[in-house]
User: What shape does this take?
Amino acid sequence: MDKLCTIYLVRHGESEGNINFGNWLHEVQRTKLGSDLTDTGRKQAESLASKFNHINFDAIFASHLNRAKHTAEILAKERKMAVVAKEALEERRKGNLGGKTEKELREELDIGNIFNYPENMPVEKIWKWKLFPDMESAEEALGRFITALREIAIAYPNKTVLVVSHGFVMRALLVHLGVGTFRELSSGAIANTGFVVLRSDGVDFFIQEISGIEKRNA
Assistant: This one.
């Protein structure tokens, strides 16, 4: 157990897309990198940086999407460390949504989130559900996300690393690790800058601490 990598896995700070879907959609269409942090999101990242100031991180990784990468850069600033961006740490991939915009689909289907599975769907089918063939299922999103975490763990044995990512893939990981179900860990269950401390040998993951994550009634 002495060669385990310690991973601080953090959700990004509040983004413009979290509070204004139109802003998020515009930036996705314009840059493919999503919206940036709000002032509140930057303050959340600064507050977390203070909370983590006693931790000696050996490396800092982040999703390449703006909200995660910029959160990581705030956390890295006082440490004068570079942030390594990895696409495999990004949020669940939407595909081309059948040639429609997400806004059009939300209005057409009368749903708040295109990742939400049908309410009556059996639990065993949730992992494979997707709205369109080229959208990632929860199973596919977790597969590339957990592979990236395992690669990091193998590269940093007996080290401590920081990883900034996104709500859905983090929730999928927690469901996989038995913390709760998708219904208990629904959208919004992980607060902005909520985090999980994991230890890993590159295969298995052991949860050490959970902060800012609230299970809901199934």
User: Anything to note?
Assistant: The domain at 5-213 is CATH 3.40.50.1240 (Rossmann fold).
